[in-house]
Structures are given as structure tokens and as C-alpha cells.
Amino acid sequence: MLTRNEARLLWAANPWLYALICAFRHAGPVTRVPRVGWVVTDPVLARRVLNDHATFTMGGEGGVGHLWAQLFGPEMGRFFDGPAHTELRSSVRDLFTEDAARALIARTQGPHHARLADALAGGATVDLADTARVLAGRMVCDLLGLPPQDYRRLFTLGENLASLALGTTSSTRLPARVLSEAHAIVDELTAAVPSAYRSSGPSTLLGRCRMLGLPEEVARGLATLLVVAGTETGVSGTLRTVALLHDARQQRLLLDEPGLLPDAVREGLRVATPAPVIGRHVARDVRLTPHARLFAGERVLLLTHLANNAAGPFDITRPYVRETRQLWFGAGRHLCLGAAIARAQVAATLRALHTPGRPYRIVGRTEARRALVPTYARLLVTSV
């Protein structure tokens, strides 16, 4: 059952998504919807889909690879399901370990979290949404090897690009007008990528792309994807975890038992599920259940929000849920590379908010409208 604040957040971001979640709350594990495709709400079936890369692909209609191929060319589309994807993930794995993630967050966000804690201790009211957008931009640019820039503008560009995909639930084929808008956004968003691609060192993602011999246009596509995923979903997961902990009135429990912090982070990401829907293209006929036979060319929508939230409402004392595991990050070879970074970012923010030694209070919030990733446009917090 959605809380009132989460329901308002989802409705403001995408009324169609909100309606989809409400409509399938009590539906079966997999249902065929005309002109949309198959909708999966069961976490075990969703994981099966995400792990069967031969049957369910990202490159065909319905997958993000299909979107990115229209923006960056067919080679980009082939990348997601090809050997170059596996090679890149293997090459950059050391940049995304738990230790590397904590170091990245400390390097790019640590001083700002310290100032946030000082401001709250002094009685100030802080717009955490604005802070999170800036910090996410700093983190992504550092990871990619991009120079410092206007991080608010970077987030806005990523937000604008993501919002163009709002209509892709029924089709990932972009109309010419939308494609033209998307190209203009991408050109500005990746203006610094060519230079960084040529000069960035091996400790950066763009540097690794060059070392592997990936074409510059593919590197541009990956940089764009990381900006959108690294800022949009990271900010959403952080802000919504902060709000969920506040609304569930479990801050005092966390303050009394700091060892519950990893559980609070996991619960926040589970309930928020920043990527509430994941799409795949059916590449070959398959029987997903005894009553669900999928045919090549169809689409699958994994309603991960329902799959994850079936376990119950936000509760930092909830035991580990084996069925969902970390489905909010996906699964299989496309499991989000930045999972450890997201966890480190949420944990660092919660620690900063509680550094004064007392709970924080949300004194104002505004939901982001027409957002692919549901989030807060404004979240005002102060120390109790």
C-alpha cells in the first residue's frame, strides 16, 4: 500500500505509471496488456527475465538499447547485448567496488556533507533536493573524467532528456520531433566528452573506454546514460529514503542503533525503487509460466515497483528479503554498475543529517512533475 506522500510523488511524476501500479497491485504475476506488452509483477519472474539475456534483450523495441541506438547510432544499440559490453564491465569493475564507491563519495561529496551537518546543527533549513542534485553532478563528472561545470544545469539536462522518454511505456520508437529535441539536449550535455575521452586517465570511465578502443560515439552514449542514471536515480533514491525514514518515524531507532544504517539504506531503495519499470524486448518465443507464452517481437514491462514493495512498507528492522534481493538495481549482466555508489551516497547523506545527534524534520516538500524517475523538486529539512 502506497503512503500518501509516495502516492503523490508517483502521480506527479507520471500519472500513467501511477495508474499502472494501482491497476496491477492485485493482478497475477504476469499479464498481457494490448498495445503495451506483458506486465510482470512477481520478483522471481522479473529476475528470470533479467537473467535470460538470449531471450530478453535491451536492443530491440522495448529496451533502453533501442532508445540509445536512435540517439547514437546502431553500434550503440548493439553494444548493450554484445561482447563489448561484457568487456567494458570487466574492465571498469574496480571503479565500482564498495571501497571505490565510498572513496568516490568521500572525495566528491564529503566536504559538502560536513557543511550540511554544520548548517543543520546551527538551526538552518536546507533544501536537500538542490544539494543532492549538485552532489550527484559532482560525483558523475569525477567518475567520467569530465571537468567541473554547472552541476545544476547538468542535472536539468539529464532530467529533460529523461522526460522525453515518458511516453516510451507503450513504444520506445521516438517520433522525429522528440528525437530532434533529444539530440539537442545530448549535444549540450556531452559537449565536454570528446576532449575528456582523449585526455582522461585510467581512473576514469572515459579513460577506460578509450583504452578499450570503444568508438567516441559509443563513449558519448555511455556518458549520457551515466549522467541520466547516476544523477536521476541517485537523487531520487537519496531524497526518497530521507523522506521515507522521516515519515515512518524511525529516525530515533536509527540514532539509537547506528548499525541499522545499511538496513535503512536497503529499505529506502527497495520501497523507492527509482527505476519503477524496466523494459525488455522478446527475441524468441518463450513460456514464462504455464499460462504465459511470449512470442518474439513482443515487449515485457517489469513493474519492479510492485515486485519490490510486495514485501511491505518501509521498515528498517525488516529482515533481508531473499525474493527481491536488490532488484531495484536490476539483475544479470545489466545489474546497475553504480549499485555500491548509490548505497554509499544514501548512507553518507543519512549520516550527515544525523550528525547533530538528533532527528531531522521535513518542513516542506514539492514533488517533481513530469519526471521519468519520481523524485522531489524541493525537500526542506531542518534539525529537530
UniProtKB/TrEMBL annotation:
The record, for InterPro entries, names: Cyt_P450_B, Cyt_P450_CS, Cyt_P450_sf
User: What's the protein here called?
Assistant: Cytochrome P450
Q: Which family does it belong to?
A: Belongs to the cytochrome P450 family.
- Tell me which domain of life the UniProt entry assigns to the organism this sequence originates from: Bacteria
Q: What is the lineage of its organism?
A: Bacteria, Bacillati, Actinomycetota, Actinomycetes, Streptosporangiales
Organism of origin is Actinomadura harenae
Gene3D superfamilies annotated for this entry? Cytochrome P450 (1.10.630.10)
For this UniProt entry, the molecular function terms from Gene Ontology, in alphabetical order, are:
heme binding; iron ion binding; monooxygenase activity; oxidoreductase activity, acting on paired donors, with incorporation or reduction of molecular oxygen
